[in-house]
């Protein structure tokens, strides 16, 4: 019976691949994509189906480019995996629990709907189909091995995150720890517990509550130290519960001790502070083409565009100092949905016209909301403190804004990116060897001038 089910799913997967290969281009108007609202989203969470869900904004350029590929994949996967879409300008609350901060964000809701995985692959129909079928195979394998069929009764393993567990807490073993914790870039808090420990029993509901609230932000795991003794010994666990902290990013295997209170609110606050501290700031990029402008500027709620002087005026060192101001501010405001880009004065004339900058010199700074098509310009000095005050006042609504001149998002001129070098040294052709002046007969020069005067 199990074999028949597996063959059936495999056949469906094969049909999806064949359908994709034979379809060609699919019009978005005839889409099999399911638009989700709060009601249908909750139904999705309680279903047995595997879903891929795109969180998007209609004004987002990357979302617009993804739309035909998403539609094509949805048609190919019809009857196998469901493809949904959430308009975040209408249903912003749906993205909150999943830490949706940029568009598009794609989540894969497999057997355990409480712990969706991020899709970070290519944004092509083929890549989307491949990822969906991979999730199908994983789900089928889990069911064949006795895993829970329904997501609501799933043991909370998440996508590739160990086996067992309670709710959003990931139950970790000797074998899964290296891959799921040390092998990921996620921030983890791991509790080493013993079943007979009274303090562990009191921690259990608080840990589960914190894990549910932190879903999509920070992962909370649990290790039965009486079973996985080598793992507990590795981290010097001598009492229960012992909570170890593994900050986000590449991990060396070292852990920090958690010493805060053990109630859910304290755990959540600590975890969020830790995740925020380890979150990388957005990259500060030079505007060189439309793709850069879209991904690093217009896809963000507010974009700060610096217009820098020519390299002849600042040199490489001076330009790097100005870019460093932006980089520092990007770090300071990394929790905000801000983008930071720069352009050389005069190289992006459409941007300068749209934001009415350049007339009072460089460097200059404009803040741009592409959705509302409004902007504001820094009128003070281009310093970190001045820009910081400008940003804070802008967020507080104390800075006057204006409609983008021309009424539309300006077009970007494609240019070659600055390579970091100084301006080339000026050279002069036919330079005069001053030593030749010694050979000039001044008496002859005087006679020549006298003759010229006589002719006048």
TrEMBL record:
Entry similarity comment: Belongs to the protein disulfide isomerase family.
Residue ranges constituting the Thioredoxin domain according to the UniProt record: 7-138, 161-276
MF terms (GO), sorted A to Z: protein disulfide isomerase activity; protein-disulfide reductase activity
Name of the protein in question: protein disulfide-isomerase
One of the GO BP terms on file: response to endoplasmic reticulum stress
PROSITE patterns, per the entry: THIOREDOXIN_1, THIOREDOXIN_2
Region annotation (Disordered) ranges: 140-167
GO cellular component: endoplasmic reticulum lumen
Gly residues: bias regions: 157-167
Keywords: Disulfide bond, Endoplasmic reticulum, Isomerase, Redox-active center, Repeat, Signal
């Amino acid at each position: 019976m199990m074999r028949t089910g597996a063959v059936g799913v495999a056949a469906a997967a094969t049909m999806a691949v064949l359908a994709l290969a034979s379809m060609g281009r699919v019009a978005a108007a005839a889409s099999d994509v399911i638009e989700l609202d709060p009601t249908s989203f909750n139904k999705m969470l309680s279903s047995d189906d595997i879903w891929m869900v795109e969180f998007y904004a209609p004004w987002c350029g990357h979302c617009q480019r993804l739309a035909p590929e998403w539609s094509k994949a949805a048609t190919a996967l019809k009857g196998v995996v469901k493809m949904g879409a959430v308009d975040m300008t209408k249903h912003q609350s749906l993205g909150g629990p999943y830490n949706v901060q940029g568009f598009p964000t794609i989540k894969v809701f497999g057997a355990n709907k409480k712990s969706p995985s991020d899709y970070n692959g290519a944004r092509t129909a083929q890549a989307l189909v491949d990822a969906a079928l991979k999730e199908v195979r994983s789900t089928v394998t889990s069911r064949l091995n006795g895993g829970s069929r329904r997501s609501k009764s799933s043991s909370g393993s998440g996508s590739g995150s160990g086996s067992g567990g309670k709710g959003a807490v990931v139950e970790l073993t000797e074998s899964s720890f290296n891959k799921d914790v040390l092998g990921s870039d996620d921030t983890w808090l791991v509790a080493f517990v013993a079943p007979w420990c009274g303090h562990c029993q009191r921690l259990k509901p608080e840990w589960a509550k914190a894990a549910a609230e932190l879903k999509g932000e920070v992962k909370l795991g649990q290790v039965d130290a009486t079973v996985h003794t080598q793992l507990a010994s590795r981290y010097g666990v001598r009492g229960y519960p012992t909570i170890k902290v593994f900050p986000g990013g590449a991990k060396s295997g070292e852990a920090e001790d958690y010493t805060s209170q053990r109630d859910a609110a304290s755990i959540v606050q600590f975890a969020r502070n830790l995740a925020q501290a380890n979150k990388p700031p957005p990259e500060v990029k030079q505007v060189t083409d439309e793709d850069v402008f879209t991904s690093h500027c217009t896809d963000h709620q507010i974009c700060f565009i610096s217009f820098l002087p020519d390299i002849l005026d600042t040199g490489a060192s001076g330009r790097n100092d100005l870019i460093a101001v932006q980089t520092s501010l990007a770090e300071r405001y990394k929790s905000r949905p801000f983008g930071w880009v720069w352009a050389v004065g005069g190289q992006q004339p459409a941007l300068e016209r749209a934001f009415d900058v350049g007339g009072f010199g460089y460097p200059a700074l404009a803040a741009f909301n592409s959705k509302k098509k409004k902007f504001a310009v820094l009128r003070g000095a281009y310093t970190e403190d001045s820009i910081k005050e400008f940003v804070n006042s802008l967020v507080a609504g104390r800075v006057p804004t204006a409609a983008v001149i021309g009424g539309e998002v300006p077009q970007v001129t494609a240019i070659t990116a600055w390579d970091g070098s100084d301006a080339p040294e000026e050279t002069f052709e036919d330079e005069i060897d001053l030593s030749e002046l010694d050979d000039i007969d001044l008496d002859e020069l005087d006679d020549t001038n006298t003759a010229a005067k006589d002719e006048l």
